Amino acid sequence: xxxxxxxxxxxxxxxxxxxxxxxxxxxxxxxxxxxxxxxxxxxxxxxxxxxxxxxxxxxxxxxxxxxxxxxxxxxxxxxxxxxxxxxxxxxxxxxxxxxxxxxxxxxxxxxxxxxxxxxxxxxxxxxxxxxxxxxxxxxxxxxxxxxxxxxxxxxxxxxxxxxxxxxxxxxxxxx
Length: 175
Prior knowledge:
Elements: E1 6-13, H1 16-31, E2 37-45, E3 51-54, H2 67-78, H3 80-84, H4 90-106, H5 112-115, E4 120-128, H6 132-138, E5 144-150, H7 152-164, H8 166-174
Antiparallel strand pairs: 1-4, 1-5, 2-3, 2-4
Helix pairs in contact: 2-7, 2-8, 4-7
Keywords: Coiled coil, Membrane, Transmembrane, Transmembrane helix
Protein name: DUF1269 domain-containing protein
Transmembrane segments: 77-97
């Protein structure tokens, strides 16, 4: 799959079960050939503000979306500070800083407090932009949805940085 034209699709949920259901529907839609997803996760933010990343089932949405290569990239593109909280390393930090600066300068960023407020969940997916509308519509249970173009260069650089530090990131997340 080409990473030239990517979009970040986010659905926000007051109910974690609804987010999980939409994630499974997203997988089913991809399996049925309706669209392709580069990577997707369910994020759950507790009332205390702590965020957990949930990937449901044995296989993730997307192609090879293991934590280091896929889910971490999705989280980093959605909200660089969420990934920075667990991803230690100069390479990852530099890329996350660039992405965050780009979000701020271009007013690109998705407002984390709006789309992942304490006590809520979100499905976050990276897709080829030609599938963004279909993926957004697949999130039928979402209270609100948004899709935003993302820089393919950001995706590729963050993916490489995470691949180089995947074991460290996984260890931090699991601790």
